[in-house]
């Protein structure tokens, strides 16, 4: 099976879900290196960043055993993210930096959708669904920062979770009258747009 | 419906549960401000402080989806706690400080009872029930401190969990021969009393 | 019932499981003392170190209420670990240091086996079983370090989780053709050997 048949066989959301997992994983490895952790520390930080948000979501709604115990692709992607980061660690910071931010934003959008749709399958309300979408997208990074003994970046540095909340809100505004595929597409685009624009124009949430 | 009919319609425990959630939330917002977090950080810290202990309890006993996914009042109270703290942030530290401590103590007592009664509904033993009551009352603050990258205050500063343990012990001492309403009332009073007296007289647990 | 009948009545794995819990608990109390926590902080740190890894495992696979709610011996052992550490705190660091390391290594091996076997009972794959075995053995220490506001030792200092992974891998290599008792014995010996040899010869995982 070549790579094109592989890609055409699987659902697009699923594809971006696993790419997002790997890109989130890379951000875990980079923090682990910054903290001078060993290879095992890198694996764990890649793991919690890549699957931590979804794991918390699954535990809170009762989808257990959690998702990465049911499909090995997630663990494979975590290992891939560690190997690739070690092989190309100089490129990661430099040339690839912008690509990583883009893929991270796409991953964020896809994770948000997955969280929302899973919540709806459990017949939870839109508010809870948006919370779970945001959690899926952004809590991997929070657990990563806690394990690395840092103040979570999410809480004071960037528009990140806000992008998930914006996307989730749009989802429920358009969900009743648009076809489902379009709703998903627009939601992901909103998350990506808010995230990338906030990076470009240095948007910040107010502090007091 | 005016506020008095509202209050008389709902169960007293439930009323103090949601007030306790908001007061716990306020303590999360205050720590978030201290750490210069943005508005989203405040929301998260209010959220974990207000519902974190009960969430951990629910996950450990298997009451999932967890409680705040089943009743929106908790999320409403978290948002209320952020708004009120931002509006009255000067008053919070000053004039309101003593009221907050009182409400926090009442919340602590009510949270303890809720944890104990939920454990008993799952046919867990008195020991486990006291542990779960204490967890419900005090672990929101622990998660708050971890997210704020602080050594949890619970572990070295104050008689807090000890008040829950004292109340829980009294609960099981009197439960077999007193009417249930009175057991609940006395337990809550014991928690509040131990908590407030420990603040007044600077009680501390021994260190070694 | 004297101690010999007690020991001969219970299963050897179970015996070492509860001894391991107490020894892990001791390491929690020692960190709590280092951080000048009070008696309650010691109890919590002993608790999370002793049962934290297994609790996380149980929550992720859905074995809830979690194990220590079903058998009080774990809570008893936690309390025992606090009392013993307080009584013999000078000896702990000195004469007992080597014994603690040995018991800790045995506990690590036993916890790994328990995690693996529980995963298999849930029909999870060998990869997931090794992950859960490693988690059972090593995440109590991670939660301990997070609560004590330290960078988890697991991620940068020692061969610890690696011993669990080595043992778990051996388990699945020999499981198909050896009797079950022997598989368990060899797995535990491998974990202990890797752990103790790594301490003796100062093995470390590579950093980058």
Tell me the major beta sheet of chain A: none
Overall shape of chain A: it is globular
How large a portion of the residues of chain A is in β-strands, by DSSP E?
under 5%
| Structure summary, number of beta strands of chain A | 0
Which regions of chain A have little confidence, pLDDT < 50, spanning 5+ residues?
none
C-alpha end-to-end distance of chain A = 56 Å
The SS-based structural class of chain A is: mainly alpha
Mean pLDDT of chain A: 87
Radius of gyration of chain A: 17 Å
Oligomer: homotrimer
Q: Largest contact between protein chains?
A: A-B, 26 and 27 residues
Order of helices and strands of chain A: HHHHHHHHH
| Number of helical segments with 4 or more residues of chain A | 9
The percent range for helix content of chain A is over 70%
């Amino acid at each position: 099976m070549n790579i094109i048949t592989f890609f055409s066989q699987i659902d697009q959301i699923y594809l971006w879900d696993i790419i997002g997992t790997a890109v989130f994983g890379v951000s875990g490895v980079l923090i682990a290196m910054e903290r001078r952790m060993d290879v095992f520390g890198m694996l764990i930080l890649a793991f919690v960043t890549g699957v931590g948000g979804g794991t918390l979501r699954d535990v809170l709604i009762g989808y257990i055993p959690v998702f990465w115990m049911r499909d090995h692709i997630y663990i494979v992607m975590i290992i891939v993210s560690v190997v690739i980061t070690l092989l190309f660690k100089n490129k990661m910071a430099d040339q690839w930096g912008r690509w990583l931010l883009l893929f991270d934003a796409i991953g964020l959008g896809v994770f948000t959708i997955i969280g929302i749709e899973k919540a709806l399958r459990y017949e939870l309300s839109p508010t809870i669904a948006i919370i779970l979408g945001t959690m899926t997208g952004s809590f991997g990074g929070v657990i990563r920062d806690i394990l690395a003994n840092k103040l979570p970046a999410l809480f004071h540095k960037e528009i990140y979770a806000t992008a998930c909340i914006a996307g989730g809100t749009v989802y429920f505004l358009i969900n009743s009258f648009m076809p489902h595929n379009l709703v998903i597409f627009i939601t992901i685009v909103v998350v990506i747009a808010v995230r990338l624009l906030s990076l470009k124009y240095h948007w910040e949430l107010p502090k007091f």
